[in-house]
Design a protein that fits this description.
By secondary structure, the chain is α/β, with parallel strands linked by helices. It folds into two domains: about 120 residues, 3-Layer(aba) Sandwich (Rossmann fold); about 100 residues, Arc Repressor Mutant, subunit A (Orthogonal Bundle), CATH 1.10.10.10. Helices cover about 40% and strands about 20% of the residues. The strands form three sheets. It has a five-stranded parallel beta sheet, with helices on both faces. Strand 4, helix 4 and strand 5 form a beta-alpha-beta unit. Helix 1 crosses helix 5 and helix 6 packs across helix 8. The protein is globular, with a radius of gyration of 18 Å. The termini are far apart. It is found in: Cytoplasm. InterPro entries: CheY-like_superfamily, OmpR/PhoB-type_DNA-bd, Sig_transdc_resp-reg_C-effctor, Sig_transdc_resp-reg_receiver, WalR-like, WH-like_DNA-bd_sf. Keywords: DNA-binding, Phosphoprotein, Transcription, Transcription regulation, Two-component regulatory system. One of its GO terms (molecular function) is DNA binding.
Length: about 240
């Protein structure tokens, strides 16, 4: 079991009571504090009154489905999110990631896999926080109209805040800290996700696309985040 000083709070959002109960048992056994919601509307109510650290979200639910919930949450929060869904095609997973999820688990699943994915996400966040504490630059990173705040882990364009998930921030920090340097997909994945790269290009492409939608005036003709064909990605220096 994980030895945690502060209990992480996880919100389980699924209209199937059996799934919520099963995950509640396993996550509680690993030291997590859990909350339950049957749909997106109930989840929003809980988020308003509790400091939740991670959402486990089913996609197909009544009243407000998982996609709409995540869309609403991402307008104001970079909270960790894992989708759980019986929709398991590559396009379903890509759509979920594009919507703002940090991970995607196909149903049916082994509850121990869910626990492992949750633990892995928290480890990545904690590892990166420690790196920032040790190597935080004295000033924010500023390139062109963009500012990446190393103190608040926030992204701004022309002084206006932009929504930025934890993984998007990590990718931007890696690239903006090294303008002009080309990073391969494998380098980005292994640094940001903290796992060996097994050749799954889709997840990197999805995140690069999401970042471009936020920072570029014309995502199809990016001026900041460039693709270097056959090599990887580079954040352009600005005059």
């Amino acid at each position: 079991m994980e030895n945690m000083i502060k209990k992480r709070k996880i919100l389980l959002i699924d209209d199937e009571e059996e799934i919520r109960e099963l995950l509640n048992i396993y996550l509680s056994n690993y030291g997590y504090e859990t909350f339950e919601a049957r749909n997106g509307l109930e989840a929003l109510s809980i988020l308003d009154s509790h400091a939740i650290d991670l959402l486990l979200v089913d996609i197909m639910m009544p009243k407000m489905d998982g996609m709409e919930l995540v869309k609403q949450v991402r307008k104001q929060s970079g909270i960790l999110i894992i989708f759980m869904s019986a929709k398991s095609s590559d396009m379903d997973k890509i759509s979920g990631l594009q919507m703002g999820a940090d991970d995607y688990i196909a149903k049916p699943f082994n509850p121990l896999e869910v626990v492992s994915r949750v633990q892995a996400l928290f480890r990545r966040v904690e590892k990166y926080s420690h790196v920032l504490e040790k190597h935080t630059p004295p000033e924010d990173i500023k390139i062109g109209e963009l500012t990446l705040s190393s103190v608040s882990c926030s992204l701004y364009k022309s002084g206006k805040p932009l929504d930025c998930t934890s993984l998007e921030y990590k990718i931007l920090y890696m690239l903006m800290s090294n303008p002009g340097r080309v990073f391969s997909k494998a380098q980005i994945y292994e640094e940001v996700w903290g796992e060996d790269y097994l050749g799954d290009e889709n997840i990197i492409m999805v995140y690069i696309s999401r970042i471009r939608e936020k920072i570029e005036n014309n995502p199809k003709k990016p001026m900041y985040l460039k693709t270097i064909r056959g090599l990887g990605y580079r954040f352009e220096k600005q005059k």
